[in-house]
Protein backbone atom coordinates (compact mmCIF):
# COMPACT_ATOMS: atom_id res chain seq x y z
CA UNK A 1 0.00 0.00 0.00
CA UNK A 2 1.35 3.42 -0.97
CA UNK A 3 1.41 5.74 2.06
CA UNK A 4 2.32 9.19 0.77
CA UNK A 5 3.11 12.22 2.85
CA UNK A 6 1.76 14.43 0.02
CA UNK A 7 -1.13 13.22 -2.12
CA UNK A 8 -1.61 15.13 -5.38
CA UNK A 9 -5.07 14.96 -6.95
CA UNK A 10 -4.71 14.88 -10.75
CA UNK A 11 -8.13 15.26 -12.34
CA UNK A 12 -8.97 14.13 -15.85
CA UNK A 13 -10.74 16.73 -17.95
CA UNK A 14 -11.58 16.04 -21.61
CA UNK A 15 -9.40 12.95 -21.66
CA UNK A 16 -6.30 14.70 -20.29
CA UNK A 17 -4.92 15.44 -16.86
CA UNK A 18 -5.74 19.09 -16.07
CA UNK A 19 -2.69 21.33 -16.51
CA UNK A 20 -3.09 22.76 -12.99
CA UNK A 21 -2.26 19.32 -11.57
CA UNK A 22 1.32 20.03 -12.72
CA UNK A 23 1.39 22.97 -10.33
CA UNK A 24 0.08 20.74 -7.55
CA UNK A 25 2.75 18.14 -8.32
CA UNK A 26 5.50 20.77 -8.38
CA UNK A 27 4.41 22.11 -4.97
CA UNK A 28 4.22 18.59 -3.51
CA UNK A 29 7.84 18.10 -4.63
CA UNK A 30 8.78 21.16 -2.56
CA UNK A 31 6.88 19.95 0.50
CA UNK A 32 8.59 16.58 0.78
CA UNK A 33 11.00 14.23 -1.03
CA UNK A 34 9.61 12.71 -4.24
CA UNK A 35 9.52 9.22 -2.73
CA UNK A 36 6.90 10.54 -0.29
CA UNK A 37 4.66 11.95 -3.02
CA UNK A 38 1.84 10.05 -4.74
CA UNK A 39 -0.51 11.17 -7.49
CA UNK A 40 -4.11 9.97 -7.42
CA UNK A 41 -5.99 9.89 -10.72
CA UNK A 42 -9.73 9.63 -10.01
CA UNK A 43 -11.78 7.82 -12.65
CA UNK A 44 -8.86 5.91 -14.19
CA UNK A 45 -7.74 2.32 -13.83
CA UNK A 46 -4.09 1.45 -13.29
CA UNK A 47 -3.23 1.27 -17.01
CA UNK A 48 -5.02 4.50 -17.91
CA UNK A 49 -3.52 6.42 -14.99
CA UNK A 50 0.03 5.44 -15.95
CA UNK A 51 -0.58 6.25 -19.62
CA UNK A 52 -2.10 9.66 -18.80
CA UNK A 53 0.76 10.58 -16.48
CA UNK A 54 3.46 9.62 -19.01
CA UNK A 55 3.47 12.96 -20.80
CA UNK A 56 2.63 14.85 -17.66
CA UNK A 57 5.87 15.92 -16.03
CA UNK A 58 8.57 14.62 -13.77
CA UNK A 59 6.80 11.65 -12.19
CA UNK A 60 10.01 9.62 -11.83
CA UNK A 61 9.74 7.49 -8.68
CA UNK A 62 6.41 8.98 -7.63
CA UNK A 63 3.64 6.64 -6.46
CA UNK A 64 0.51 6.47 -8.62
CA UNK A 65 -2.93 5.59 -7.28
CA UNK A 66 -5.65 4.87 -9.82
CA UNK A 67 -8.90 5.66 -8.04
CA UNK A 68 -11.05 3.46 -10.26
CA UNK A 69 -14.74 4.22 -10.85
CA UNK A 70 -16.15 5.38 -14.20
CA UNK A 71 -18.70 7.55 -12.39
CA UNK A 72 -15.87 9.86 -11.32
CA UNK A 73 -15.36 10.91 -14.94
CA UNK A 74 -18.73 12.69 -14.69
CA UNK A 75 -16.97 15.14 -12.34
CA UNK A 76 -19.80 15.37 -9.84
CA UNK A 77 -18.45 17.08 -6.73
CA UNK A 78 -20.35 14.81 -4.32
CA UNK A 79 -18.88 11.65 -5.90
CA UNK A 80 -15.35 13.02 -5.69
CA UNK A 81 -15.87 14.14 -2.13
CA UNK A 82 -16.96 10.64 -1.08
CA UNK A 83 -14.21 8.84 -2.99
CA UNK A 84 -11.39 11.18 -1.90
CA UNK A 85 -12.54 11.27 1.71
CA UNK A 86 -12.39 7.51 2.13
CA UNK A 87 -9.06 7.31 0.23
CA UNK A 88 -7.50 10.00 2.45
CA UNK A 89 -8.90 8.39 5.60
CA UNK A 90 -7.10 5.17 4.58
CA UNK A 91 -3.82 6.74 3.45
CA UNK A 92 -3.66 9.51 6.05
CA UNK A 93 -1.47 11.91 4.01
CA UNK A 94 -0.15 15.04 5.67
CA UNK A 95 -0.87 17.18 2.58
CA UNK A 96 -3.58 16.79 -0.04
CA UNK A 97 -2.60 19.05 -2.93
CA UNK A 98 -4.90 19.98 -5.80
CA UNK A 99 -5.40 22.80 -8.30
CA UNK A 100 -7.49 25.84 -7.47
CA UNK A 101 -9.91 25.38 -10.36
CA UNK A 102 -13.67 25.89 -10.34
CA UNK A 103 -14.08 22.13 -9.85
CA UNK A 104 -11.82 21.99 -6.79
CA UNK A 105 -13.50 25.10 -5.40
CA UNK A 106 -16.46 22.74 -5.03
CA UNK A 107 -14.56 19.70 -3.75
CA UNK A 108 -11.57 20.89 -1.71
CA UNK A 109 -13.25 22.80 1.14
CA UNK A 110 -15.71 19.89 1.64
CA UNK A 111 -12.83 17.42 1.70
CA UNK A 112 -11.01 19.54 4.29
CA UNK A 113 -14.15 19.64 6.43
CA UNK A 114 -14.58 15.85 6.25
CA UNK A 115 -10.90 15.27 7.15
CA UNK A 116 -10.94 17.96 9.83
CA UNK A 117 -8.09 19.55 7.90
CA UNK A 118 -6.98 23.11 7.27
CA UNK A 119 -7.87 24.26 3.75
CA UNK A 120 -5.59 26.82 2.15
CA UNK A 121 -6.86 28.04 -1.20
CA UNK A 122 -5.35 30.04 -4.08
CA UNK A 123 -1.77 29.25 -3.03
CA UNK A 124 0.83 30.86 -5.28
CA UNK A 125 3.94 30.80 -3.12
CA UNK A 126 5.67 28.59 -0.59
CA UNK A 127 8.57 28.84 1.82
CA UNK A 128 9.93 26.37 4.32
CA UNK A 129 10.34 28.35 7.54
CA UNK A 130 11.95 27.13 10.76
CA UNK A 131 8.43 26.54 12.11
CA UNK A 132 7.20 24.58 9.09
CA UNK A 133 5.66 25.41 5.75
CA UNK A 134 4.28 28.88 5.03
CA UNK A 135 2.02 29.41 2.03
CA UNK A 136 1.23 32.68 0.33
CA UNK A 137 -1.93 33.63 -1.49
CA UNK A 138 -3.27 36.80 -3.09
CA UNK A 139 -6.25 38.59 -1.60
CA UNK A 140 -8.65 41.20 -2.99
CA UNK A 141 -7.84 40.45 -6.65
CA UNK A 142 -4.12 40.70 -6.04
CA UNK A 143 -4.06 43.93 -4.02
CA UNK A 144 -2.68 42.11 -0.95
CA UNK A 145 -0.66 39.00 -0.28
CA UNK A 146 -1.34 36.85 2.80
CA UNK A 147 1.14 34.41 4.32
CA UNK A 148 -0.56 31.47 6.00
CA UNK A 149 0.93 28.84 8.28
CA UNK A 150 -1.33 25.89 9.07
CA UNK A 151 -1.40 24.82 12.70
CA UNK A 152 -1.87 21.06 12.58
CA UNK A 153 -2.01 18.34 9.93
CA UNK A 154 -3.66 17.33 7.65
CA UNK A 155 -3.74 20.18 5.17
CA UNK A 156 -5.67 20.53 1.94
CA UNK A 157 -3.69 22.90 -0.26
CA UNK A 158 -5.19 24.35 -3.46
CA UNK A 159 -2.63 25.73 -5.89
CA UNK A 160 -3.26 28.63 -8.28
CA UNK A 161 -2.91 27.71 -11.96
CA UNK A 162 0.55 28.57 -13.27
CA UNK A 163 2.03 29.26 -9.82
CA UNK A 164 4.54 26.41 -9.61
CA UNK A 165 4.64 24.32 -12.79
CA UNK A 166 7.26 26.44 -14.56
CA UNK A 167 9.66 25.66 -11.72
CA UNK A 168 9.66 21.98 -12.77
CA UNK A 169 13.05 20.76 -14.09
CA UNK A 170 13.45 20.55 -17.91
CA UNK A 171 14.28 16.88 -17.78
CA UNK A 172 11.10 14.83 -17.59
CA UNK A 173 11.16 11.36 -16.09
CA UNK A 174 8.07 9.43 -17.09
CA UNK A 175 8.62 6.17 -15.20
CA UNK A 176 6.59 6.31 -12.01
CA UNK A 177 7.27 4.45 -8.78
CA UNK A 178 4.74 2.04 -7.34
CA UNK A 179 1.36 1.94 -9.11
CA UNK A 180 -1.76 0.81 -7.32
CA UNK A 181 -5.48 0.61 -8.07
CA UNK A 182 -8.11 1.41 -5.46
CA UNK A 183 -11.86 1.09 -6.08
CA UNK A 184 -13.69 4.36 -5.42
CA UNK A 185 -16.35 4.46 -2.73
CA UNK A 186 -19.77 5.28 -4.20
CA UNK A 187 -22.51 6.03 -1.69
CA UNK A 188 -25.68 7.51 -3.26
CA UNK A 189 -25.26 11.22 -3.97
CA UNK A 190 -27.59 14.16 -4.31
CA UNK A 191 -26.61 15.33 -7.78
CA UNK A 192 -26.64 13.78 -11.25
CA UNK A 193 -25.19 15.02 -14.55
CA UNK A 194 -27.82 15.82 -17.18
CA UNK A 195 -25.82 17.11 -20.10
CA UNK A 196 -22.21 17.75 -20.98
CA UNK A 197 -21.42 20.51 -23.43
CA UNK A 198 -18.05 20.77 -25.14
CA UNK A 199 -16.42 24.19 -24.81
CA UNK A 200 -15.19 26.05 -27.85
CA UNK A 201 -11.80 24.45 -28.39
CA UNK A 202 -11.38 25.57 -31.99
CA UNK A 203 -8.04 27.17 -32.72
CA UNK A 204 -8.23 30.93 -32.57
CA UNK A 205 -5.92 33.62 -33.92
CA UNK A 206 -4.73 34.01 -30.31
CA UNK A 207 -3.00 30.62 -30.42
CA UNK A 208 -0.74 31.57 -33.32
CA UNK A 209 -0.38 35.36 -32.90
CA UNK A 210 3.13 36.69 -32.23
CA UNK A 211 1.72 39.87 -30.69
CA UNK A 212 -1.41 39.96 -28.54
CA UNK A 213 -2.92 43.28 -27.52
CA UNK A 214 -5.19 42.63 -24.54
CA UNK A 215 -7.93 44.92 -23.29
CA UNK A 216 -8.93 45.13 -19.64
CA UNK A 217 -11.72 46.96 -17.85
CA UNK A 218 -9.45 50.02 -17.85
CA UNK A 219 -10.30 50.50 -21.54
CA UNK A 220 -13.45 52.03 -20.15
CA UNK A 221 -16.13 51.47 -22.82
CA UNK A 222 -16.84 49.37 -25.92
CA UNK A 223 -16.25 52.45 -28.10
CA UNK A 224 -12.66 52.63 -26.82
CA UNK A 225 -11.98 49.14 -28.17
CA UNK A 226 -11.27 50.80 -31.51
CA UNK A 227 -7.89 52.03 -30.28
CA UNK A 228 -7.04 48.51 -29.08
CA UNK A 229 -7.76 47.07 -32.56
CA UNK A 230 -5.81 49.92 -34.16
CA UNK A 231 -2.82 49.17 -31.89
CA UNK A 232 -2.95 45.47 -32.81
CA UNK A 233 -3.04 46.41 -36.50
CA UNK A 234 0.41 48.01 -36.11
CA UNK A 235 1.95 44.56 -35.78
CA UNK A 236 2.10 41.61 -38.16
CA UNK A 237 0.51 38.33 -36.93
CA UNK A 238 -1.34 40.08 -34.14
CA UNK A 239 -4.62 39.41 -32.32
CA UNK A 240 -6.81 41.14 -29.75
CA UNK A 241 -7.65 39.48 -26.44
CA UNK A 242 -9.54 40.55 -23.34
CA UNK A 243 -9.75 40.02 -19.62
CA UNK A 244 -12.86 38.37 -18.24
CA UNK A 245 -14.82 41.58 -17.45
CA UNK A 246 -14.26 42.76 -21.03
CA UNK A 247 -15.58 39.49 -22.48
CA UNK A 248 -18.41 39.27 -19.92
CA UNK A 249 -19.48 42.77 -20.97
CA UNK A 250 -19.55 41.68 -24.62
CA UNK A 251 -16.84 44.11 -25.77
CA UNK A 252 -15.08 41.02 -27.15
CA UNK A 253 -16.33 37.47 -27.77
CA UNK A 254 -15.87 34.92 -24.98
CA UNK A 255 -13.38 33.07 -27.21
CA UNK A 256 -11.02 36.07 -26.83
CA UNK A 257 -10.84 35.73 -23.04
CA UNK A 258 -7.40 35.05 -21.62
CA UNK A 259 -7.16 33.46 -18.20
CA UNK A 260 -7.80 30.34 -16.20
CA UNK A 261 -11.37 30.20 -17.50
CA UNK A 262 -10.32 31.35 -20.95
CA UNK A 263 -7.36 30.69 -23.22
CA UNK A 264 -3.75 30.12 -22.27
CA UNK A 265 -1.41 31.79 -24.74
CA UNK A 266 2.34 32.20 -25.33
CA UNK A 267 2.92 35.12 -27.72
CA UNK A 268 6.28 36.79 -28.23
CA UNK A 269 4.76 40.09 -27.00
CA UNK A 270 1.74 40.58 -24.73
CA UNK A 271 0.55 44.16 -24.46
CA UNK A 272 -1.76 44.41 -21.43
CA UNK A 273 -3.90 47.55 -21.68
CA UNK A 274 -5.83 48.55 -18.54
CA UNK A 275 -5.52 45.08 -16.97
CA UNK A 276 -4.95 44.91 -13.21
CA UNK A 277 -3.14 41.54 -13.30
CA UNK A 278 -5.34 39.23 -11.22
CA UNK A 279 -3.74 35.79 -10.92
CA UNK A 280 -6.65 34.24 -12.85
CA UNK A 281 -5.52 36.37 -15.80
CA UNK A 282 -1.74 36.28 -15.59
CA UNK A 283 -1.62 32.52 -14.96
CA UNK A 284 -2.54 32.12 -18.62
CA UNK A 285 0.29 34.27 -19.98
CA UNK A 286 3.18 32.62 -18.13
CA UNK A 287 4.50 31.49 -21.54
CA UNK A 288 4.54 35.03 -23.01
CA UNK A 289 8.11 36.02 -23.85
CA UNK A 290 7.71 39.74 -23.17
CA UNK A 291 4.89 41.42 -21.26
CA UNK A 292 4.33 45.17 -21.53
CA UNK A 293 1.71 46.65 -19.23
CA UNK A 294 0.01 50.02 -19.57
CA UNK A 295 -1.92 51.01 -16.49
CA UNK A 296 -2.53 54.37 -14.80
CA UNK A 297 -2.13 52.79 -11.34
CA UNK A 298 1.55 52.22 -10.62
CA UNK A 299 0.63 49.74 -7.85
CA UNK A 300 -1.35 47.42 -10.15
CA UNK A 301 -0.19 43.79 -9.69
CA UNK A 302 0.34 43.40 -13.46
CA UNK A 303 3.58 45.37 -13.06
CA UNK A 304 5.13 42.56 -11.04
CA UNK A 305 4.64 40.23 -14.06
CA UNK A 306 5.52 42.84 -16.71
CA UNK A 307 8.95 43.09 -18.33
CA UNK A 308 8.17 46.74 -19.17
CA UNK A 309 5.65 48.90 -17.35
CA UNK A 310 4.09 52.13 -18.53
CA UNK A 311 2.30 54.06 -15.79
CA UNK A 312 0.01 56.15 -17.94
CA UNK A 313 -3.63 56.35 -18.99
CA UNK A 314 -4.45 54.42 -22.16
CA UNK A 315 -6.15 57.42 -23.75
CA UNK A 316 -2.89 59.39 -23.39
CA UNK A 317 -0.41 56.68 -24.21
CA UNK A 318 -1.91 54.63 -27.06
CA UNK A 319 -2.62 57.50 -29.52
CA UNK A 320 0.89 58.91 -28.91
CA UNK A 321 2.42 55.45 -29.35
CA UNK A 322 0.50 54.87 -32.58
CA UNK A 323 1.55 58.22 -33.96
CA UNK A 324 5.23 57.41 -33.38
CA UNK A 325 4.85 53.93 -34.90
CA UNK A 326 3.07 55.28 -37.98
CA UNK A 327 5.79 57.88 -38.53
CA UNK A 328 8.41 55.15 -38.42
C1 LIG B 1 -12.98 31.51 -10.67
C2 LIG B 1 -12.54 32.75 -11.38
C3 LIG B 1 -12.07 32.63 -12.65
C4 LIG B 1 -11.63 33.77 -13.33
N1 LIG B 1 -11.15 33.65 -14.60
C5 LIG B 1 -10.65 34.73 -15.22
C6 LIG B 1 -10.08 34.64 -16.51
O1 LIG B 1 -10.03 33.56 -17.13
N2 LIG B 1 -9.57 35.76 -17.08
C7 LIG B 1 -9.59 36.96 -16.46
O2 LIG B 1 -9.10 37.95 -17.03
N3 LIG B 1 -10.14 37.09 -15.25
C8 LIG B 1 -10.69 36.02 -14.61
N4 LIG B 1 -11.26 36.16 -13.40
C9 LIG B 1 -11.47 37.52 -12.88
C10 LIG B 1 -10.21 38.11 -12.25
O3 LIG B 1 -10.17 37.77 -10.88
C11 LIG B 1 -10.22 39.64 -12.33
O4 LIG B 1 -11.39 40.13 -11.74
C12 LIG B 1 -10.14 40.16 -13.77
O5 LIG B 1 -9.05 39.57 -14.44
C13 LIG B 1 -9.95 41.65 -13.73
O6 LIG B 1 -10.02 42.14 -15.04
P1 LIG B 1 -9.37 43.53 -15.41
O7 LIG B 1 -7.93 43.52 -15.07
O8 LIG B 1 -9.76 43.82 -16.82
O9 LIG B 1 -10.21 44.55 -14.51
P2 LIG B 1 -9.83 45.32 -13.16
O10 LIG B 1 -9.30 44.40 -12.14
O11 LIG B 1 -11.00 46.15 -12.82
O12 LIG B 1 -8.61 46.26 -13.59
C14 LIG B 1 -8.72 47.36 -14.41
C15 LIG B 1 -7.37 48.05 -14.43
O13 LIG B 1 -7.40 49.11 -15.37
C16 LIG B 1 -6.68 50.21 -14.82
N5 LIG B 1 -7.21 51.41 -15.47
C17 LIG B 1 -8.40 52.02 -15.23
N6 LIG B 1 -8.54 53.06 -16.08
C18 LIG B 1 -7.43 53.10 -16.84
C19 LIG B 1 -6.99 53.96 -17.89
N7 LIG B 1 -7.74 54.97 -18.35
N8 LIG B 1 -5.78 53.71 -18.46
C20 LIG B 1 -4.98 52.70 -18.01
N9 LIG B 1 -5.37 51.86 -17.02
C21 LIG B 1 -6.57 52.06 -16.46
C22 LIG B 1 -6.93 50.15 -13.34
O14 LIG B 1 -5.88 50.79 -12.63
C23 LIG B 1 -6.97 48.65 -13.07
O15 LIG B 1 -5.70 48.16 -12.69
C24 LIG B 1 -11.70 35.04 -12.70
C25 LIG B 1 -12.16 35.13 -11.40
C26 LIG B 1 -12.58 34.01 -10.74
C27 LIG B 1 -13.06 34.14 -9.32
Number of H- or I-type helical stretches = 10
Return the structural class: alpha/beta
Q: Which radius of gyration do the C-alpha atoms yield? A: 21 Å
- Quick one: CATH class of the largest domain? Alpha Beta
- How are helices and strands ordered from N to C? EEEHEHEHEHEEEEEHEHEHEHEHEH
Helix content: 25-40%
Q: Which shape, going by the Cα principal axes?
A: elongated
Count up the domains: 2
- Annotated CATH homologous superfamily of the largest domain: HUPs
Number-wise, the strands total 16
Q: What average pLDDT do the residues reach?
A: 89
Strand order across the biggest sheet?
A: 9-8-7-10-6-1-4-5-11
CATH level-3 fold name of the largest domain? Rossmann fold
What are the bound molecules?
Answer: flavin-adenine dinucleotide
Using brief descriptors, characterize the structure shown.
328 residues; alpha/beta; Rossmann fold; 2 domains; 9-stranded mixed beta sheet; 5-stranded parallel beta sheet; 16 strands; binds flavin-adenine dinucleotide
